[in-house]
Design a protein that fits this description.
The chain is α/β, with parallel strands linked by helices. The protein has a domain at 48-201: Rossmann fold, CATH 3.40.50. 26% of the residues lie in helices and 28% in strands. The protein has a seven-stranded mixed beta sheet with strand order 1-8-7-6-3-4-5, sandwiched between helices. The chain has a three-stranded antiparallel beta sheet with strand order 2-10-9. Helix 2 packs across helix 3. Pathway: Purine metabolism; IMP biosynthesis via salvage pathway; IMP from hypoxanthine: step 1/1. Pfam families: Pribosyltran (PF00156). It catalyses: IMP + diphosphate = hypoxanthine + 5-phospho-alpha-D-ribose 1-diphosphate. Keywords: Cytoplasm, Glycosyltransferase, Magnesium, Metal-binding, Nucleotide-binding, Purine salvage, Transferase.
Length: 240
């Protein structure tokens, strides 16, 4: 008889990111249904929507398998708005599916929402602003899963986790749909779970924006330089 426990280990879903190589420039736009008002601003489709959904489903299964054993109490799922709302919604929904499918144990969850501002145009700024959760004392002795869309330099997430840990939660885990492989500097923060590691492109779509545009794209796309210039803000305007 086959060793089923060993087979289970061999097929354990990977929590580390699926790596998109630097040599991969994406898929041609004409193979996808994209909003006409953005076509001239995009270079390629880096990750199709369907692949994003499949990876989120895999992450949900891995997170459930890891946490439902070790967290008997409620898990606070914390959405980092605005870019994280699509990922947050889909991930939580797929974890709920795991709750319905598993007969041995479930993972109770509550939902919280915060906003973190750190971007001006296509660069991460040095200033961090955290909004939401007026009473952070509710995190004391709780289990937290921070759900983020993308980790770039890691400065923002490192600062956020440090701030939350001041309120002495039991555990803090971080899941990011994307981590960026920067050319100019090394990312200082590694999430516990990650969907994709992407090259040093400015990507938009699936609620990732550029100055509040492109959130309505379904696919993850690479912007053209001309598109970046077109939607660039000027002066002292600050965006997420």
């Amino acid at each position: 008889m086959a060793d089923m426990s060993k087979r289970s280990d061999d097929h354990r879903i990977e929590s580390n990111p699926l790596v998109i190589e630097d040599s991969f420039e994406g898929y041609p736009l004409n193979y996808f249904n994209l909003p006409l008002h953005y076509r001239d601003d995009l270079k390629s489709v880096l990750i199709p929507y369907g692949l994003v959904q499949d990876r989120i489903e895999a992450l949900a299964s891995r997170i459930f398998s890891d946490l439902h054993i070790h967290i008997p109490e409620q898990l606070i799922c914390m959405c980092v708005l605005k870019g994280g709302y699509r990922f947050f919604s889909d991930l939580v929904s797929k974890i709920q599916n795991e709750n319905r499918l598993r007969n041995d144990r479930s993972l109770p969850m509550s939902l919280e929402f915060i906003r973190v501002r750190s971007y001006v145009n296509d660069h991460s700024s040095d200033q961090l602003e955290i909004m939401g959760l007026s009473d952070l004392n509710v995190l004391n002795n709780k289990h937290i899963l921070i759900i983020e869309d993308i980790i770039d330099t890691g400065v923002t997430m490192a600062a956020l986790k440090t701030e939350l840990e001041k309120f002495q939660p039991k555990t803090v885990h971080v899941v990011s749909l994307f981590t960026k492989r920067r050319k100019d500097k090394k990312c200082i923060f590694k999430p516990d779970y990650s969907g994709f590691e992407v090259p040093d492109h400015f990507i938009v779509g699936y609620a990732l924006d550029y100055n509040e545009y492109f959130r309505d794209l379904e696919h993850i796309c690479v912007m053209k330089e001309s598109g970046i210039a077109k939607y660039r803000v000027t002066g002292d305007d600050h965006v997420e």
